[in-house]
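Hi Y.,

Following your request, here is the sequence exactly as I used it, all 798 residues.
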Amino acid sequence: MTPNDLMMKLKEKVLLFDGAMGTMLMKRGLSPEKCPEILNLESPEIVEEVHRQYVKAGADIIETNTFGANRCKLSSFGLEDKVAGINKRAVEIARRAAKDTALVAGSIGPTGRLISPLGDLTFDEAYDIFREQAGYLLTAGVDLIVIETMSDLQEMRAALLAVKDCGKIPVICLMTFEQNGRTLTGTDAETALRVLSAMGATAVGLNCGLGPKEALEIAKKMTKIGMVPVCVQPNAGLPDVREGETIYTVTPEEMAMYMKKMVLSGVSIVGGCCGTTPEHIKAMSSSISGIRPPLTSPDGRCFLASRTRTFYIGSEGSTPFTGERINPTARKSLQESLKKGDFGLVVSEAKRQYEAGAAVIDVNVGVPGIDETKAMEKAVLAIQRTVDVPLSIDSSNPEALMAGLKAFCGRALLNSVDGTKEKLEKILPIATRYGSAVIGLTIDEKGIPESAQKRLEIARKIVEAAEEFGLDRNSIFIDCLCLSAAVHPGQAVETLRAIRLIKEELNVRTCLGISNISHGLPDRKTLNAAFLSMAVLEGLDLPILDPLSQEVVRVLKASDLLTGRDKKAKYFLSSCSFEKTNKETLDSRGIENLKEAIFNGSEENLEYIVNEVLKRGFDPVYIINETIIPALEEVGKKYETGEFFLPQLISSAQAAEKVFSILRPFLPKDTQKNRGTVVLATVRGDIHDIGKNIVKLMLSNNGFNVIDLGVDVPEEKIIETAISTNADIIGLSALMTTTMVRMKDVVDLAKSRGITSKVIVGGAVVNEEFAKMIGADGYAPDAVSAVNLAKKLVKLSR
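Below is the corresponding structure, written out as tokens. Let me know if you'd prefer a different format.
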């Protein structure tokens, strides 16, 4: 089946997926400690019977029992050598059950690890893991692939690329959102849909995590965009534990009611996740029978995106601009830093430009004698730790472009392609593959034309070629190129005319490097500002400029007001209070700079900064109290209020950890404050540890001695460790409804042994009510809450 085949089916009817596989297998005796996917080899008849029930209930698509059948997940059970057998057999089983009645979708779930810069798994490693599993599923004959329950947009990007590289097959991408409408790593629904659609996903949506009521609100946000069909597979409500058994409270009738609302709001594909059964699917089938979702079409907005936000480039509001300062051309200090492999200046420039209002930051690391591909990857990863803004990946080297686009989590701008046949054929496929927007330069084999009309012709050639490679016109920026007025008098007018012509005739966006106009002339800022105001009047969408040039930025705001973009003078008035903070202020020896580096999660130059602070005579304990602790507390507050997301939380914690490691040898043992001892564990039968590892990082950096027992830890081991270490806190994590009941076993055992350790519980399926019910001393929904609760409990017990 091709993506077009699936789209044709969606024109005929709403497609219905099956419900939960794990829920059904548990009912048939699968223990929480056992790998569900091994049943494909050991008890295939059980799996087949579950499939048959869903087909009988009316499912149009059934999913293979391969959610955790990737190499990384299977290794937790010692089954990493059975990836091929488990996946191939799963398809055979599903095919027998589906017959000619239902389609078979290969299920691919997450690795359970975070991708760099948030974790230690590289993008390429994740890609290889998913490519291996997808290859076996496609070879065995699935009709489509569903990549599901992803909480990290970057991991989803790796999986999507891997599947698409295995063959031309429909791919449905389902993210998992939390109650706040964002994924664990901070991505909102709109950004997820736009980024994944641009990368070629056949359908995008959400599954797991939420019940149908909560999922409906997120689905509505997605269907408004209209780029691709939306798929929703919610849980049967949120789990509740009654008498030691996990119960999902949403009935088949309630589920069916919400599914009907989903379809009427524009959802094209529905189904169920945890807690849903054949009864739920049967009721859903009946409720949506004969209903077609309202017709939707793409909203046609031009956008770029970071991990957590979508940025629009349109004709209203303040004109967005790209910061140009990360370019080693004529910047000796940046050249030297890049040659040394030091990205501190790159990060500093990114942050300063972002704070000065840059909507996009251009990244060019082309220095002779260095490995530009590796440098681009490192620069992009380093910048993402500090600022949350789209990047323009700027290089003439295709390998460096790919490295930057791969490393960037979001939708970047590829800079650039031109009108030469070689560039069009080499660069445009890269933009298509990674779903980026692209800059097209009006230059070809003959050079830069003098006339606006000739530049229009090259622009038309670029646009037509881009469309052939699958890019729409909202993804194309044409740079009409301006030349120095000192060398090419009169050419400025042709550039301006070209902007107008291209906007009118091609209906694409335009960008322009403003600073080139003044090259070789005095009073460059005045010339740049004057030329910028003229270009905005002609319809320039995305100027490329120096954000630290206050005069130029202010003129841009004034131009927006005078051309009618800034209708209430909001942006102009704000620019009038522009503070003079853009001068060079980096004092690597300052205690405040160290605090700022930790707050921003910037690890570049940290060792140098700490050593310089030590040389100036600052006491290590004073450094901890005045930099690490205040910075982490401030980050924690912003996380709690929703200003920061998990990436910022992890980055600042990692920076703090690095500072601790540098200071530790200088700290006398009696001054190394210990807030208390915490024993952490993922409970028996559960192999998920992302959340636990983040909690460990935060607790350690807040002065706790953390003993991490890992995953799938028996109750007796947890209690024995708590006793032997005289632990103040026992922290328990569970991600599965089938394993959360083990938390009560730990609490009961602790009470029976008479230990005084306080028990904190957390995890995606756990809530405050459950914590109280099992007798735990507290519930922590996230890492920041865990730290605050641990401090409170230790203080009360001492």
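The radius of gyration is 28 Å.

Thanks again,
Q.
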